[in-house]
Amino acid sequence: MTDAEPDEPCSACGDPTPDALARTIRLSVDRANIDTQRLCPDCFAEWIDRYQREMEPESGGVAEGNSDIIVD
After folding, report:
1. What is the DSSP string of 30-57?
2. A single Pfam family, by name (predicted)?
3. Across the chain, what does the average pLDDT equal?
C-alpha cells in the first residue's frame, strides 16, 4: 500500500479538496495564463455568483447570448 498524497487545498478557503470535487478556474488573455485557482464546491458556487453579479450590465439583467460561463 502506498501513501496517498494529501488533497491540494482550495485557493479561496484553504480546505483540502479532493480532485473529484475540485473545480479549476483559469483566466487567460490572448492565450497567456493570467491566473489559475483550484476551488472547492462551496467556493466555486460563490465565485460563480460573484462573477454573474459583477458581469451583469447596469440595466439589471444578463445580456442575451452572453450568459455562458465555461469552466474546465
Report:
1. TTEEEEEEEE-HHHHHHHHHHHHHHHS-
2. DUF7569
3. 81
> What gap in Å lies between CA 35 and CA 25, rounded to an integer?
8
Report phi then psi at 6, rounded to 5. -65, 155
pLDDT of 72 reads 57
**Residue 59 pLDDT level (bands cut at 50, 70, 90):** low
φ, ψ of residue 17 to 5 degrees: the values are -130, 115
CA distance 15 to 64: 36
Q: 18 near 39, Cβ under 8 Å?
A: no
Distant-in-sequence, close-in-space partners of 29: CB < 8 Å, separation ≥ 6: none
